[in-house]
Amino acid sequence: MLNSAKIHGLYAITPDLEDTDLLCKMVEASILGGARVIQYRNKVAKETQRIVQARALQAICLQHQIPLIINDHIALCLELGAAGVHIGGGDGDIAAAKAEIGPGKILGVSCYGDFTRAQKAAELGADYVAFGACFPSNTKPNAPRAELNLFELAKTLHIPCVAIGGITLENVGSVVTAGASAVAVIGELFNRDLQEIAPCAKQFSSFF
Questions:
Q1: Which is catalytic among the residues 6, 30, 36, 41?
Q2: Is 30 among the catalytic positions?
C-alpha cells in the first residue's frame, strides 16, 4: 500500500517534445503547481534521447520527492532507479512486469474501459490502474471511451484508479466526483506557455 499511496492528485504525463531543456522546465513548473506524479512518455524519441530525457526528469523528481513513472520501458526504469513503470495492453504480461521491477517499485496498468482487466491487474500486484479515455482525447483520438461508473466499481479493488483521456479543467470535477484517485493530464497542462503551466497545475490540484 506504500506504493499505491503515492498515486493521488494531478498525474502529469509528458508531451512528445524534442527539446529536453524545455521539457524539464515544463515538468518542474507542473510540480511547483502541485503535480504529485510525473510519467515520462515519449512515443517518438530515439533510445538515446529517451535515456537523456528520462535521466534529466529523474533528477528533477528526486529533488522534489515526486515519483517518476516510465511509460512502457521497464529496462529504462530499472537503469535510472525511477519510481515505477506504466504498461498498456500491448506491453507484456502484468505478472511478469511486476516480478521484473520488484516489490519496491510502482506498477501501473492501463485498463481502458475493461473492469475485468483492472480486477486481474489488482490481483497480480498492480499498484494502480488507469481507465480511459474518459473524454475525447487529442492525444489518442481513436481511443475507446471509458464510462465514469468504472471508478465507483473500482473501489472494490482497494488500489488507486487514475482517469485519463481528454481531461480538462472544465470536466475534471466529474471524474473526481466519480471516484478517481488521480487525473492523468497531457494536453490541457502542457499545451500552453511555460508561465501558465504552474497555475494550471494548481487549478487541477485544487480538486483533490
A1: 41
A2: no
**Catalytic hit among 30, 98, 105, 110:** 110
Hunting for cell 485544487 — which residue is that? 206
Distance CA 21, CA 26 (A): 9
| pLDDT tens-digit map of 97-120 | 999 999 899 999 999 999 999 999
- Compute the Cα dihedral for 181, 205, 143, 135 and give only its sign: positive
Catalytic pick from 140, 174, 202, 205?
140
Tell me whether residue 140 is one of the annotated catalytic residues. yes
Residue 1 predicted with pLDDT over 60: no
Q: What angle do CA 145, 150, 154 make, to 5 degrees?
A: 145
CATH number of 4-205: 3.20.20.70
Phi, psi of 108 (to 5 degrees): -110, 145
Residue 86, sorted as left (phi over 0), alpha (psi -120 to 50) or beta, turns out to be beta
Average of per-residue pLDDT across 186-195: 97
110 is catalytic: yes
Dihedral angle sign, alpha carbons of residues 151, 74, 82, 98: positive
Write the DSSP symbol of residue 5. G
